[in-house]
What we know:
The structure is a single chain. The chain is an alpha+beta fold. Among the domains are: 75-130, Roll (Membrane-bound Lytic Murein Transglycosylase D, Chain A); 152-302, Glucose Permease (Domain IIA) (Distorted Sandwich), CATH 2.70.70.10. Helices cover 31% and strands 22% of the residues. It has 8 helices and 15 strands. The protein has helices at 36-39, 43-72, 85-91, 97-104, 106-109, 132-149, 153-168, 296-302, and strands spanning 19-24, 27-32, 75-78, 121-124, 183-186, 203-206, 212-214, 219-226, 232-238, 243-249, 251-252, 259-260, 265-268, 280-285, 293-294. Helix 3 (85-91) packs across helix 4. The protein starts with 18 loop residues before the first strand and ends in a 6-residue tail after the last helix.
Amino acid sequence: MPAKGKHRRPKSQRFTRSIAVAGTGGAALALPLMGATGAHAATPASTVSAATGKTATAAEKAVAAPAAARKTATKTYAVKAGDSLSKIADDQSVSGGWKKLYSDNRKAVGQDPALIHPGLKLAIGKKAAASSDTAKSSSAESSKSSESSSKSSAETAAETTTTATDTADSSSSGYTLPVEGATIGTNYKVAGSMWSSGYHTGVDFVVPTGTTIKSIAAGTVISAGWGGAYGNQVVIQHADGQYSQYAHMSSLSVSAGQTVTEGQQIGLSGATGNVTGPHLHFEIRTTPDYGSDVDPAAYLRSHGVTVG
């Protein structure tokens, strides 16, 4: 009987890999070729890795941004009674100490960093611009300086006569006291929190307003005018390279660039600037600027001048 059905021969399974035959001098090598599916298997992992890397970078930036903002932020400090720039610099961990703090706030503090008043705003961490109040104050002080420096021809003639007399009485050493017969009120390097350096940078001669102030030796006037907390001041360079400073004067008799002789009158004592009473603040410096002070009494004695 004819068969009711035929058995179909099963087809052999296809392999996903084919064999490549390469000739090697008569021999044959069977090399498996990777299928398309295998070739793309690594793509997802690579993509994830790349994406993860970008995500991490973005996260790091997000964390770093606030930190950078905090680092560059400027803090304002209000001066309290008993403060000094050195104390504030230590308490606020100012890199560079009181000199950096003074440099950043010079316009607000004024010429003398030793004299800061309660309520003054100081910038910590960034250079501060002078406040409008400070600018107005400086303008008013400059006007006062100009008024007190103005002299009539009669006053000028009288001062010329005094200068001649003082010069005639000069010491043979070439140096003299800046004021005659005065007592020292505050000595050099007396410690105190009212001074930013932590000590008094000169000596104070206690004299009434209007006392003649003289150049201690021959020299050239480097500056003459308003000096902020120092009031009306004169700075003179001498032959040995040192500088003498005379502060808080009521009026000035010299100007910058002028040559002076030993004992020549350079102005009259007073109480301009930040003071509690009339006196002459006198310094010897190695430069024209604050912070380069040396013992003024010792300096005068080394030049044969008797200092009480």
